[in-house]
Amino acid sequence: MQQRKITLSESEIPDKWYNIVADMPNKPLPPLHPGTREPIGPDALAPLFPEELIKQEVSTERWIDIPDEVRNIYSLWRPTPMYRAHGLEKALDTPARIYYKYEGVSPSGSHKPNTAVAQAYYNKQAGVKRITTETGAGQWGSALSFACQHFNLECEVYMVRLSYEHKPYRKVMMNTWGAKVYPSPSDRTEAGRKVLAKDPNTTGSLGIAISEAVERAATDPDTKYALGSVLNHVLLHQTIIGQESLLQMEKAGELPDVVIAPFGGGSNFAGIAFPFLRLNMTEGKKIRCVASEPASCPKLTRGQFRYDFGDTVGMTPLLPMYTLGHNFVPAPIHAGGLRYHGAGVVVSQLLKDNLIEAVSHDNLEVFQAGITFARAEGIIPAPEATHGIATAINEAERCKREGKSEVILINLCGHGNFDMKAYEDYFAGKIQSHELTSAEIEASLAELDTPTV
Ligand SMILES: *Cc1c(COP(=O)(O)O)cnc(C)c1O
Question: How many A from CA of 139 to the centre of ligand 1?
Answer without folding.
Answer: 8
